[in-house]
Amino acid sequence: MKSNKRIFLLTLVLGLLLSFSAITAFATQNNNFPKNQAGQTYGSAAMAKSPQEEPDLIAAIGVNGEEGYVYREDLDGEMPSTPEEALAIQKQTEKKMALVAAGTPVVVRTIPLYDVDGVTVIDEFDIINVSNPDRYKDK
To answer: Nearest-CA neighbor of 68 among 118, 113, 128?
Structure first.
């Protein structure tokens, strides 16, 4: 009787461990994006739960309506190397935004829009911020 109970418990524990492993592997696996000839993944980042799950080339629509891809690194932009540099960039953006009417999109910077090959530039993609001038007025 004891050996049957041990076998049952061992089987139950192994089953739970295997189930947990399969669920974890499925949850953490990168989306199955297609790859271009250079081996880069491409597609929409809409369902990504983190930057690690995004494709190398993210689907976007350019300023002239072209459908293409942007590099995730280009979207992020260069990171400031000091807090002072970060504040300077923020102030520059705030100045641009304070000059336009509320709700107006302000182009913060423009990056290339690529064909699926990740090399051929087919358009540009504007990174925008919607202005709210009241936010930047001195209180």
So the answer is: 113
Helix%, strand%, coil% for the chain, nearest 5: 40, 25, 35
Are residues 114 and 87 in contact, defined by beta-carbon separation less than 8 angstroms?
Answer: no
Residue 83 CB neighbours (<10 A) = 8
Burial of 21 (0-12, 13-18, 19+ CB in 10 A): exposed
| CA atoms of 138 and 78, how far apart (whole Å) | 29
Which sequence spans correspond to the domains of the chain?
1-30, 31-136
Whole-prediction pTM: 0.66
What confidence category does residue 23 fall into, taking pLDDT thresholds of 50, 70 and 90? very low
Amino acid code (one letter) for 66: E
82 has pLDDT over 90 = yes
